[in-house]
Design a protein that fits this description.
UDP-GALP_mutase; flavoprotein; 15 helices; UDP-GalPyranose_mutase_C; 18 strands; UDP-galactopyranose mutase activity; isomerase
């Protein structure tokens, strides 16, 4: 049974409070009976689907049915109060950062912000060292007192030039040499992806810089802040519109024979939509163990990485660093990558890119469905990139008069 989400508490309430003034729940059956004709059915209530639902409703007066197979909105950014009353990210840490002012301007309609610059430590050789590697990392690891210029020379002397950079291993060894690669990157990457860095596309480790100054920030974007009252509150405000119906705990298979709509926007896995006709696109999944400890602070930063392959988890996150919540206890998550479970990360290998191209060719042949988001386009996107993709798609949908939408009809089951 689905639920309809409408009417939410003010975003000006403090972190840690969740109001109870949701309007009455409406089942999926009720929604399809009472408002049978939708302009859009959107599958997936994460960033891509929710931004498009808001824009189509508020910007173009379109009726939208938004569904998600999970029992909540916000996708993997979903946060909630745990049993101890600590605000946690259910699916691991989500840190918002961007250089795009238009994305900040858009999201600021639905949230206030708190300043937060993300810092990460890595447990290496019995020490907690800044990652990305910087001047302090090198000086602490090797017992040196180098300045910035000396650190540049130090890394240059250890780098092992790779003529043709193709893999993640090539990227790191070319920058910092094999010893630092082994200490900081190889084990973590093998745990994270279930593959050796030599088997992964160069894009995986190209995202992590190396610095010779003391900048310990994980990101350097111009805008680094967190939603003041959490991601879920931001999504609730985004979706609080009379033209949006929301059915939760509902998958596409549950509605495609009963819902009536003019166009489908699909944010789920593209291979699933096509019934895996070419085989499954590989994803890496995650498992989280959430715990609460009877102390106000557990670690000095939000995230500590564990590159050592003898340690089963990849990182520990302490959420109060991210949220700014004041609480006598603190909640953590231990993160365990896995091959099974919800799809999180498209695996960047050439054969997977080729398989996606086959599904993309199928998608291009259909005017009835538009694919968007990380799962719909089989690409790793940051949150701001997904918002940007959704806003760009809305502009195309709003301005595209050359492809009129068909009459709303009951969608037949696909064979």
């Amino acid at each position: 049974m689905g639920q309809h989400l409408r009417g939410h508490e003010s975003a000006n309430q403090p972190v840690g409070h969740r109001g109870a003034n949701l309007m009455p729940l409406i089942t999926l059956e009720s929604a399809t009976l009472e408002r049978a004709h939708y302009d859009y059915l959107i599958v997936g209530a994460g960033f891509a689907g929710s931004v498009l639902a808001e824009r189509l409703a508020a910007g173009s007066d379109k009726r939208v049915l938004l569904i998600d197979r999970r029992p909540h909105v916000a996708g993997n950014a979903y946060d909630h109060l745990d049993g101890a009353g600590v605000l946690v990210h259910q699916y691991g840490p989500h840190i918002f950062h961007t250089n795009a002012a238009r994305i900040v301007e858009y999201l600021s309609r639905f949230t206030e912000w708190r300043d937060y610059e993300h810092r990460v430590l890595a447990s290496v050789d019995g020490q907690l060292l800044p990652i990305p590697i910087n001047l302090d990392t090198l000086n602490s690891l090797y017992g040196l007192q180098m300045n910035e210029r000396e650190a540049e020379a130090f890394l240059a002397s250890r780098a092992e030039p790779v003529e043709a950079i193709r893999t993640s291993e090539d990227v790191v060894i070319n920058q910092v040499g094999r010893e630092l690669y082994e200490k900081f990157f190889r084990g973590y990457t093998r745990k994270q992806w279930g593959l050796d860095p030599s088997q992964l596309d160069k894009a995986v480790t190209a995202r992590v810089p190396t610095r010779t100054n003391s900048d310990s920030r994980y990101f350097t974007d111009a805008f680094q802040k967190m939603p003041l009252h959490g991601y879920t509150r931001m999504f609730e405000r985004m979706l609080d519109h009379p033209l949006i119906d929301i059915a939760l705990g509902v998958g596409f298979a549950d509605v495609r024979e009963v819902a009536q709509y003019r166009h489908l926007i699909y944010c789920g896995p593209i291979d699933e939509y096509f019934d895996y006709c070419y085989g499954r696109l590989p994803y890496r999944s995650l498992r989280f163990e959430h715990t609460t400890v009877d102390q106000a602070r557990f670690q000095s930063v939000a995230v500590v990485n564990y590159p050592d392959e003898t340690v089963p988890h990849t990182r520990i996150t302490e959420y109060k660093h991210l949220t700014g919540q004041q609480h006598a206890r603190t909640s953590l998550s231990h993160e365990f990558p896995s091959a099974e479970g919800d799809p999180y990360y498209p695996i960047p290998r050439p054969e997977n890119a080729e398989l996606y191209k086959r599904y993309k060719a199928l998608a291009d042949q259909s005017d009835e469905v538009t694919f968007v988001g990380r799962l719909g386009t089989y690409k790793y996107y940051n949150m701001d990139q997904v918002v940007g993709q959704a806003l760009a798609l809305y502009q195309r949908l709003a301005s595209d008069s050359s492809k009129p939408m068909t009459e709303a009809v009951e969608q037949p089951a696909r064979s």
